[in-house]
Amino acid sequence: MKGFKFSGIHAGIKKNNQKDLGLIYCDKPAVAAALFTRNKVIAAPVILCKEKIKSGLCQAVLVNSGNANCFTGQKGIEDAKICSKLTANTLGIAEELVFVSSTGVIGAPLPMDKFETGIPDVAAALNENRTDDFANAILTTDTHNKIVQKTAKIHGKEFSIMGIAKGSGMIRPDMATMLAYVVTDVDINAKELKTALLAANEKSFNRITIDGDTSTNDTLLALANAASQVKINDLESKKLFQSLLDQVCFELASMVVKDGEGATKLVKIIVKGASTKEDAFKTCETIAHSNLVKTAIYGEDPNWGRITAAAGRSGADVDPEKIDLFFDDQALVLKGLWQGGDAEKKTALIMKKDEIEITLDLNLGEETDFFLFCDFSENYVKINAEYRS
Amino acid sequence: MKGFKFSGIHAGIKKNNQKDLGLIYCDKPAVAAALFTRNKVIAAPVILCKEKIKSGLCQAVLVNSGNANCFTGQKGIEDAKICSKLTANTLGIAEELVFVSSTGVIGAPLPMDKFETGIPDVAAALNENRTDDFANAILTTDTHNKIVQKTAKIHGKEFSIMGIAKGSGMIRPDMATMLAYVVTDVDINAKELKTALLAANEKSFNRITIDGDTSTNDTLLALANAASQVKINDLESKKLFQSLLDQVCFELASMVVKDGEGATKLVKIIVKGASTKEDAFKTCETIAHSNLVKTAIYGEDPNWGRITAAAGRSGADVDPEKIDLFFDDQALVLKGLWQGGDAEKKTALIMKKDEIEITLDLNLGEETDFFLFCDFSENYVKINAEYRS
C-alpha cells in the first residue's frame, strides 16, 4: 500500500534461521489507534505503547517474536525503550513515533545484542512489497502468515485496508488478539479511527478463542496515512470504512482461530433467543471454551449433551425444554428433545466438515451473539507441553 | 459399617460385562442430607431427588452408570420414577425413601428392560461387605474405585464415616462432585447433617477441577443411621464429626482429581496474600482451569509465565512486581523477578514428582484459598474425542 514499507529478517532471537524481527514504516507519521490486553500482567512493550498511543501518531512499529519481554521487571521496560531508540536513530525519526511489540516466551530478558545488530538490518530491508516477510517474522507457533487486504471506493476514489496478524495459542483476546496490525490509506482522525477499531474488534478479535488464556501482549494497532486522499468524514464514508474494517478484522480473527494450536476444525457457535445480550454472550463463550465440547468436535461427535450442559452452567437463563440445536441446517434437538437416529446420522456427516456452524436457540427472548472457536486435539497438548523445551 | 448394605452388579447397561448398577440399603430409614449440581440443565434423577430430600430421610440409593438420564424430557422423569418404584417394591419399603442417581452418556433414554431384570438382582446381592462392588458399579471413565473410611471416638464411643465417589471427567463441581455418597453411623438430625455437609463440601468438592465442565448430575448424598449411638449434639461432638467428615470429603475429592481423565499429576495451587476472599478464589480457580498451565505441568515445565498470566486475567487485584511464586518450597519468582537458572533447575526436578504444590503469594493482603487440579495430557483428548463411539 502506498506510503507503507515492511520488512522481516532473522536477527538471531529464534533458532533455526526463522525470521524473528519485523518492521513497519510509514513515509510520514500516520494517525494511530490501538487496543491492548486487559490482562493485569502486562508485557513491557505494551506498557510503553499505552503511553505512546496518547499522541495519536505513529511512524514505525518494530515487532520481535521468540521473546514476549513480559515479566521482565524494570529492565524489560528499559530494554523496550532501547529498542525503540535504536529504531528511531536508524530511521532518523523521533523516538515517540516508534512503537514496539514482542511475542514469545514469557519471563526471559530480551537478547539485546541481537537487536543492536538486527535493527539496522531490518531497517535496510524495508520495501513496499515485503508484507510477507513482516507477517512471517511475527509468528510463534502459527503455521502460516495471516494477511488480509481489501479495497473499496468512496465517491469514486479507491482506498485500502490491510491487516496482518499472528496468534495461535494463549488466545482469548480481551480487547484485541495477541498481535494484529491494520494499515490503511484513508484520511481519518485518531478519535474516529479508535471508534471504528473498537467496533470492528468487538465483532472479531473479542469473539474468538483458542484455549481461553488471555495473552499478556495482546495488541491491535491501526495506522492511517491518508495517501489515498479519501476522507472519512461523513456518514456514508464512515459506514463504508467501518464495513471494510469489520471485514478485514473478522477475516484476520478467523484465520487466527483456524490456525489455532493443534486445531483441525473452525466452529462458529451462534446463540439465539437469549433473554439478555449478556446471556447470549455468556452462553456462546462457555460453549466455545468447553474442553468437552472441543474434544467432541475433534472426534467428529455431535455430542449435543455436552453443548447443552455447557449452556446450563454458563449462568445464563436456560430452560432445557425450550432448547433447539442445529448443526449447519440440521436440527438435532427441538424443544429439548433429541430428533432420533436419522437426524443424528445426518449431523455426524456435517461433523466431518472442516468448518461447522452450530446454532443454539434458547427460545427465551430476542438476543443473539456468536463466537468463533476451534477443536481441541492431542496436538494442542503436545505443542504446549513441549513449548519451552 | 453396621446397618448399611451394598451391592453392585452388571445389569447390561454398559458393554463388556462391566458392573453398572449399584445399591446402598439401610436397615432402617437414615437421616439424609444432599447437595446437587447448580447447572441449569439438570438430569431427571436429580430433579426427583431434589424433591425427595425435603423429607430428610432415605433408606435406599439406586445408582446406574452408562447412562446419565439427562436431557431425556418427561420420559426421563417417568423412567427415574419407575426405577425408584421397582426398587421400593423389591425391598419392601416406601417409594419416597428410595433415591436414584445416574451417570454416563447424556441424551439417551434409560434401557428400562435392563432395570426390570437388574433391580431384583442388585437387591438380592446386598451385603455389608460389598462396598467395592458398589464403588465399582458407579464408575464411568474412572480407572479405579474411590472409597475412604475413617473412625474416631466421642466420649469413648467409636463412630465411622465412609465415603464412596466416582468422577473423572466433566468435573468442576458447583455444589458437589458428580456422584459421592457418605454413610455414617452417628446420631444426627437432618439440619445439622446438611450444615456439616455444606461446610465439608466447600473445602473439598467445591475446590477441585479436572476440565472445568460442571456436570448435570453432580450429587453428594450423606446418610446417617445412628447405629453407633454416638450423638452429634454438642460443640465438641459437632467439631469432631465435622473434622472427620472434612477429611473423608477431602480425600475423596483428591482421589477424583488424581484419577482425572488422562491425568498424570495432582497439583495443589495455594494463593496467599490476596486483597479479598473472592480474589483468592478467582486466582486459584483461573490457574487451575488454564489449559496452558495444565499442559505445561504435563510437560514437567515450571512455566511460571503462564501461571502469572492466568493470575493476571483472573479479574483479581494483581501487582506483577509483588508476586512470589514457589514450587513446593523452591522460590522461582520473588517480588516479580525470576530467580535464575539454578532456581529453575531445582524447580524442574520438583516438576517430575507425581504431586506438586504451587504457592502464589500476591503480597497484597491477608486472604488465602486453594484448588486441587490435574495436568492435561493427550489422553484427555483421546478419551473425550472417542467417548460416544
Concise account of the structure shown:
By secondary structure, chain A is an alpha+beta fold.
Describe this structure in words.
- The structure is a homodimer of 389-residue chains.
- The model of chain A has no long low-confidence stretch (mean pLDDT 92).
- Helices cover 35% and strands 28% of the residues of chain A.
- In chain A, a hairpin with a 2-residue loop joins strand 11 (324-327) and strand 12.
- The first copy, chain A, folds into 2 domains: 4-258, 4-Layer Sandwich (L-amino peptidase D-ALA esterase/amidase); 266-385, ArgJ beta chain, C-terminal domain (Ubiquitin-like (UB roll)).
- The first copy, chain A, is an alpha+beta fold and 389 residues long.
- Chain A has helices at residues 44-52, 73-91, 112-124, 131-137, 190-202, 235-258, 277-289, 291-298, 304-313, 340-350, 378-385; strands spanning 4-9, 21-36, 57-67, 98-105, 146-154, 157-166, 179-184, 208-209, 219-224, 266-274, 324-327, 330-334, 337-338, 355-361, 367-374.
- In chain A, helix 1 crosses helix 2 and helix 5 crosses helix 6 (235-258).
- At the A-B interface, helix 8, helix 9, strand 13 and helix 11 of A face helix 8, helix 9, strand 13 and helix 11 of B.
